[in-house]
Design brief:
The chain has about 270 residues and is an alpha/beta fold. It has helices spanning about 20-25, 30-35, 45-55, 110-120, 125-135, 135-140, 145-155, 160-185, 195-200, 200-205, 245-265, and strands spanning about 65-70, 75-80, 85-90, 190, 230, 240. A hairpin with a 2-residue loop joins strand 2 (about 75-80) and strand 3 (about 85-90). It is globular. It binds adenosine monophosphate.
């Protein structure tokens, strides 16, 4: 089908606005030049969609808002979106960096890798699998990567399930705090993806202690699952939202605008 345009929408594209000082790692600059080793970030289509929806729900323009979007699913990432542009995000060169996830370790001391490889006599493939498939809340709890299982187990008194949930909530709060600092404040916090949309317990756990920012969760509204809704109390300076993500819609919209450009180009060439 030679006349049908082929469009690729990259999950990293939304984060291309990150400044260099936010995407560079503290390793020799040559690694960035030679191999493109830098933070790229992922879940870009999701962060873009939910931040735009939050602005719509606040009846404000993105250019006036500092939004922290928390995409919490099997893979999880957080983004700092200042005046419509992603200026930092928790995933990096690969989706392994940042938050503790279902089975991914998230941020760790890089020195753990050679330490474990030596101690456990692991190959590169084995350590890769260990960090991507056996770590995260699965590795901490020893039970499951699924937060539904962990919440049930924790409620039944399983300490490691509780610990895994505590580690996760602590890291999300840490990232929220750091993104408030890099944006010089925050106007809205958005929860999305499997956990963000469906777990009132986790949302409440994360938001407890964030009141100093000028926000307060409304316990009644926080009962919502899978529906776009503000869950902070009326009048809170910082709004908190649950917004189901819609990555397909962003891909369709991006495809449409790219194709319009292509057709415009073809007609006018
Ligand atoms: P996602 O990757 O966005 O599809 O999210 C999948 C993850 O969301 C699952 O592995 C669960 O950990 C989590 N999840 C889905 N539903 C719920 C729920 N009702 N309560 C807690 N976690 C949930």
């Amino acid at each position: 089908m030679p006349e049908v345009p082929q469009v690729a929408v990259f999950d990293t594209a939304f984060h291309q606005t990150m400044p260099k000082y936010a995407f560079l790692y503290g390793i020799p600059y040559e690694a960035y030049e030679k191999y493109g080793l830098r933070r790229y970030g992922f879940h870009g289509t999701s962060h873009k969609y939910v931040s735009q929806r939050a602005a719509e729900m606040m009846q404000q323009h993105m250019s006036n808002l500092r939004i922290i979007t928390c995409h919490l699913g099997n893979g999880s990432s957080i983004a700092a979106i200042k005046y419509g542009r992603s200026i930092d995000t928790s995933m990096g060169f690969t989706p392994l960096e940042g938050l503790v996830m279902g089975t991914r370790c998230g941020e760790i001391d890089a020195a753990i890798i050679p330490f474990l490889m030596k101690k456990e006599n692991m190959s590169i493939e084995q350590i890769d699998e260990y960090l991507n498939k056996k770590s995260g809340v699965l590795g901490i709890s020893g039970i499951s990567s699924d937060f539904r299982d962990l919440e049930v187990a924790a409620a039944q008194g399983n300490e490691r399930a509780q610990l895994a949930l505590d580690v996760f909530a602590h890291m999300v709060r840490k990232y929220i705090g750091s993104y408030v600092a890099v944006m010089g404040g925050v106007d809205a916090i958005v929860f999305t993806a499997g956990i963000g949309e469906n777990s009132p317990t986790m949302r409440s756990k994360i938001c407890t202690g964030l009141e100093y920012l000028g926000t307060r969760l409304d316990p009644e509204r926080n009962k919502v699952r899978g529906v776009a809704q503000r869950i902070s109390i009326d009048g809170a300076r910082v709004k908190i939202f649950v917004i189901p993500t819609n990555e397909e819609l962003v891909i369709a919209r991006d495809t449409k605008s790219i194709c319009s450009g292509l057709f415009w180009g073809a007609e006018n060439s």
